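Lab meeting prep.
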Amino acid sequence: MNVMPLGSGEKVKAVIHVRTLDDDEAYLVLSTRKGSIKRVALNAISGIRPSGLIIMDLKEDDDLVAVRLAGTEDDVIIVSEQGMSIRFPVVQVTPHSRTAGGIKGITLRAKDRVVSMDVGNPETRLLVISRLGYGKLTQLAKYRTQNRGGVGIKTFNITKKTGNVAAAELVEDDTEVYVVSEQAQVIRTSLEEIRNTGRATQGVTIFKPAPGDKVASIACVSDLKDDPEPEEPTSKGRNGKSNGKNGSKQLELKDLT
């Protein structure tokens, strides 16, 4: 069943569960491949219709990487393919109108690009996994808070053995991790099997791809047996995980009901 009408070249990038769109303290944070970021009030899309709403104005050569639900006390962490990262308070991203473009979240070096953006608090840990299956966990508090738009600091020591960064996500202690390869191989592991390390390290092997295969993505999920209804983020800073021209292409949110 087709639940979302998509234009040519469009792909679904995020699905976010919320109890209501009429929340004055909740925001969507969107990040793009070229390092732009945007914050928009959740109630700005309360009038969403089946045909969709424009949620961000994207440059022609850019595309959406991630969308997260955030409160005003959350921190943002952006991770790049070449192992750089930047952490800054979400309030450094001024809320913009629904149809506006983004502002600079991170300054990327030549040939680098964003692979992940997430929001959370210092008690969470950042899981980073490379293309050749190396992974590491680091407390978010070990990433010093910086001003939005800088080049950031190293989060992963890239070598020929590790390959570039494939994915990164903030996780909590009861999380299980599914690693998916380009050739559709999947492994499941718990955080207990991934060593906590310092910020600028290469981690340990958690997945051994076959020759020619590489890590494509990860999915991090909590215990599914007694999973409670997700809470909305508030100004007290809950982790917003329930888990995006000037000649521009337009990003839309669709109503799936």
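Slide two material, second protein:
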Amino acid sequence: MMNNEHNKTIGIITPMKTFLSIGSGPGIGLATAERFAREDYRVVLTSRNQDYLSERVKALEAAGHAAFGRHVDASDIASVVKLVHEVESEFGSIDVLHFNAAALHDGTITQQSIEGFVQDLSTNIGAAFAAVKEVSRGMLSRQDGTLLLTGGVFGTSPHADYVSLSVGKAGLRNLALGLFKPFKDQRVHIATVTVAAQVAADSQQAKEIADMFWALHAQPPDLWDAEAVYNGAMSRQPETGPGGG
């Protein structure tokens, strides 16, 4: 923020960076978008609910932020790919991706249908893979960018009553951990926050998790982490180094 003000003073125009949120729900998704908006990012919110989307965009605009809304269904992989291409075409590049979509269904292996399981995985890991694959193309070409994924405790401690969510969160975590080193070698940071707490809409917990995502993004390359863990307190807060966070 101070650097932007200094640049304005001496006549340097700093291009506004773009933050794309896939799964901009009223909890972690919106809180994280607001956190980056406060750092002068242009934020693109997404949702299947057009009325909710319009309301949230207007609220951010009223607070003085640059905000845009795009309709997307994360269970439709083609619509996720189309979204990425449209945002890149309109704004030039995506500097930060936050994947926060999830099919939050309970169900044991006897309760959940095969079709329902596959559909849940299309959202929980298929859409994440598609978003990371498409957004990372530009980032790797520029050798600059951050990919942030909302993980969950079921990814490390699976629950038999939440089979599809457990498998999805494990896949999401492994996507981040598996790509961390090769992406880091090309100056692209992929990271996940593993959330081990129930998070309500517009809550302090959501804001704390948003701060963790910002702290991961703000880390200098030599301190990059692949994962931070949130368990209801600001535990394992990422190191940002001097001037970070």
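Talking points for slide two:
Helices lie at 2-9, 28-37, 50-62, 77-91, 114-142, 163-184, 204-218.
The chain has one domain: 13-230.
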